[in-house]
Amino acid sequence: MNFAVIIPMHNEGGNVVGIVREVNRALSENNHRADIVLVDDGSLDNTAAEIEETVREHPNIIVLKHARNAGFGVALRTAIREAVERGYDFVVFMDADFTMHPGYIRYFHGKMVEGYDFVIGSRFLEGGGMKDVPAWRKMFSLAGRAVFRICFRLPLTDYTQGFRAIRGSLLAKMQLTETGFPILIEEIYQARKYTDKFSEIPFILTGREVGISKFNYTPKVLWDYFKYALKSLVR
After folding, report:
1. Is domain 3-234 classified as CATH 3.30.230.10?
2. How many angstroms separate the CA atoms of 144 and 181, rounded?
3. Which of 19, 49, 157, 206 is deepest in the core (most CB within 10 A)?
């Protein structure tokens, strides 16, 4: 299957070269050929220089750049447009900070081969979990899991993290608008209209070793997440 791995980046200096090497190692070990799409979302550190280094080392890199930091959601939307134009069968989304191990890509691939359209890495399935993750993030994940399981009524146990695979034809139907992390919930909310082929794989989320988390829990961000729970009750 023709697929890509999308990795959004903002100030990920110290992670870029390593994560690309690990993704390509995982692809090679499983005889998978895929593009790696890096989105530099207006980084102000040495992320751009490290991306240039990876391009020289790896021929399967596609680089997309924002002149200014536009937000996680905008970075994903930029990558999704590119993915749809290139006609990938599916796309794996992951972070650059080594909190999501590239070795799990083979399990996403397996689920896509089985015919699923939307596959999420779950911290709550047997074999999954969280290691060295701050307590506040665990609390948010548990709260989101409880709310969205009730409101979305899908066969999913995890909703609020971004390690996932989505079929290209499904991405092409989405009209995503979120600029920040709530795009992760918007994807699921919109996907419900077009498919019932959801699945999960267990994975262990780990704490980042280099850099700092880009997520912050402002009242607006929380509303932008949970408004989709309310919308799902009336649509």
Report:
1. no
2. 13
3. 19
